[in-house]
Write a structure and sequence with these properties.
2 domains, Jelly Rolls, 4-stranded antiparallel sheet, mainly beta, 14 strands
Length: 208
């Protein structure tokens, strides 16, 4: 449906004028704003006028930022939904150049082909290992990883309790209704020795 533009026949169309009213019809509530500052008293309870003439006058009367809107129910063709969210806390011992620690979280009852994102917050320390670092590699079962490339992150030397954390992401899609997603962590550096790696792993599986 096209909306009237009273008194604006010779004015240049604006993004708000072109899109704000259709957005309102789809459940959004446009708000008048100057940049990010909303210039409307009690704006959290504002309702777009239902009368077309009143609404058109409101839309074209001043500077309104269509980027600042609130919404109740989004009306879109396709909106990914959260199918499952899992998290785990880990604290594993590791040996330099030894077997990598595996940190994973499982999922089940999801749709095959669903997208996922795994978020790792990781820190580590090592005793008797100079210049220690952790080699962190995405892994999983019944998943197709967008990338399996590893990343090397610094670990603290010695048995320090001062912890620094780094964030790693892994994305992809699941190939079955259940499986695991996560990372492997291997301690590397000079000299022999061991240490610990710790942090949290979270995984979000989208349902569509």
């Amino acid at each position: 449906m096209k909306y009237a533009k009273p008194g604006c026949e010779n004015t240049k169309p604006t993004p708000y004028g072109n899109h704000a009213e259709p957005l309102s019809d789809n459940g959004f509530t446009p708000l008048p704003a100057d940049g990010k500052a909303v210039k409307l008293r009690d704006w959290r309870h504002f309702v777009m006028p239902s009368d077309e003439e009143e609404r058109a006058t409101y839309v074209y009367a001043g500077t309104i930022n269509a980027g600042n809107i609130t919404a109740g129910t989004l009306s879109v063709d396709r909106m990914p939904q959260l199918g499952q969210a899992n998290t785990t806390i880990f604290n594993n011992s590791v040996t330099r150049n030894g077997t990598a620690a595996s940190v994973t979280t499982s999922f089940s009852g999801v749709k095959s082909g669903a997208k996922f994102v795994a978020i790792l917050s990781i820190g580590g320390n090592a005793g008797n290992v100079s210049s220690p670092y952790g080699r962190v590699t995405p892994t999983g079962s019944s998943v197709s990883l967008n990338s399996s490339s590893y990343r090397d992150i610094s670990f603290k030397e010695g048995g320090t309790t001062t912890r620094e954390f780094y964030v790693m992401l892994s994305t992809g899609s699941v190939t079955a209704t259940s499986g695991t997603v996560g990372f492997t962590i291997q301690l590397r550096g000079n000299d022999s020795g061991g240490g610990y790696t710790y942090g949290t792993l979270s995984a979000l599986i989208l349902s569509g």
